[in-house]
Amino acid sequence: MRFELKVALRFLREGKGQTLFILLGIAIGVAVQVFLGTLITGLQRDLINTTVGSSPHLIFSGSDASSLMPESFSSSDASDSSDSPGSPRHSGTATVTTAGNFRREDDTLKNWADLMALLDEDASLTAVSPVAQGNGFVLRSGQRWPVIVRGVEPERANAIYQLQAALQAGTMALEGNGLLMGSALAREARLTTGDQVTLELPGGGRQSFSVTGIFDLGSQSLNETWLFLDLGRAQRLLGLGDDISRIEVQMTDIFAADTLGAFYQQQLSGITVDNWKDQNADLLSGLQAQSSSSVTIQVFVLLAVTLGIASVLAVSVVQKSRQIGILKAMGTPSGSASRIFLFQGAFLGFGGALLGSGLGFVITQFFLWGTAQATGRPLFPLEFDPGYAAAIVVIATLASVISALLPARKSARLNPIEVIRG
Amino acid sequence: MSEWLMEAKGITKVYGTVVKTRALKGIDLGFRSGEFASIIGYSGSGKTTLLNILGALDKPTEGSLWFQGEEVSRMGEKRLAAFRNRNIGFVFQFHHLLPEFTALENVLIPTWIQAGNGTRRKADRAKELLELVGLKEQINNKSTDLSGGQQQRVAIARALINEPALILADEPTGNLDSETTEQVYSLMRDINDRLGTAFLVVTHNDHIAAKSDRIITMKDGLVIQDETTSGRPSEEVWQTVAPGYCRHCYKDSDEVNNQLL
After folding, report:
1. Given this model, what pLDDT does residue B233 score?
2. Where are the transmembrane segments (chain A) (predicted)?
3. Best of B80, B83, B92 to mutate (most A CBs within 10 Å, chain A)
């Protein structure tokens, strides 16, 4: 072991009380940092998961599709959908149709198979689901409930909405005339699986379906209004022909939604790409503010810890000036004398931070346990991230070494003849 | 190579920039290998300043210091530190052991400074030295658990560990009772005889001074007497040196005697 290390360790060991106090100080500071970081990260992850965990991150829809589709997507004309009831189409302009009380811009996607193939190849996407969407009514014993009809491919929709897990009753089978209904609507209309319902569409057409499953998507409005149908069935019902309304997409790195969306927007003219970040700008700016305040607190905690170490070491240099003087008289160069204090700073920082990480972990577990007392489930899941704790340990150690710079300089400048006379 | 182990040429030391205090006013001295010399003089006569300069702890304002033909006074901070570590042993009045370490570790510290690390050979040597100074049993005692005399003996062992050619001792017995003083002095003298290490001892102690091979008397920053004593009985030596150094001591003791009579 190097001589400076040996002396540094011995100084720390012999100044037990002082060493313990400063270690405890660092540990508490780091524990606060670790806990706060874990808490904020967990809280935000939970919030985001609630917000977009089971909803699309990108939505591809048409924007005046007929003229603006790129080469690869515009191989055929847009006339397929012109037989859509009540939706006269003028080439080259966005058209608005009136369906019941809803004004609907014509944003249907044509020739979407190519786009689907393209998106399916993108490894950063975890789910790609085509949707044919329109409005309608559920009729039951003389009453009408407005609904949003969503035609999907069950497997693909499941990847986004976790339908399978959301099913309260029944199955996800949509073949034939099956449909999935939200739990709130089912309750209001007194429907259970196996019941027959009549669906009325804006054009006036009616069709009979049987309820194969009832879902709870965790949102009252979705549970009241959403119906899932087979995609082909919905296309025919809504008069979309081979077109669909949109493609919904989920991705691994949800925070890249805006850049990826912009990328596709640029690549595919004639297509509008919406991303969840734009649609949840308020939430995101809230989270941003939360993150900044968390960072601010952590910086000040770190600063307090650093100042603590600096002052303890500054006092220590004075306390040990006789020892430093004698070491120098015996031939310790100034650089060596300063390293003794840098090592002490590093030891204090590293040791305290390790201790603090452990303490932070304990506090995290305690928090989970404490919030689980009332409900049996923690308020929200917290994940102790060893990488984050390790980063804090590294930062705290570096900060401690930096805080030892001034005492180390004092030690380097100490003149031995001033202390050896006693 | 010159005849001297260490040679000081025209050394002056001035303290302060506005109000200048001349602590040394031109010192020319040479020391031979294996010599046992004392420096005596009143407080403020410049003894310690001279010792600090000879030990390369301080730089002379003018003049030069040579050690085995090398000019020490021109070395930079790093080389000076290495020079002190290799060639000079220090023994101070207040022992200056590191209280955080044991007797053995204190003796080993100069070897750590030199090599960055200890070796078994050095540890064995340190044990031998502690045995030599009569502390075989106290090897692993914390230095704070040792008596004053024991601490000073550890300090002497520490000064010897890197086998320096010269040991500088600044009032090594100034803090000890007369019996312990005698022990420490005998030890230094013994080491001087057996290992041939040169000693330069700043002292107020008549006995130590009188038993040296050479007594250098300082006054007001100058060497006023430089007496080689070898072979002569110490009482006679003291009679020659005392008038320059301690005239009033005798006057005082006469007064004391008169009062007693």
Report:
1. 67
2. 20-40, 297-319, 340-368, 388-406
3. B92
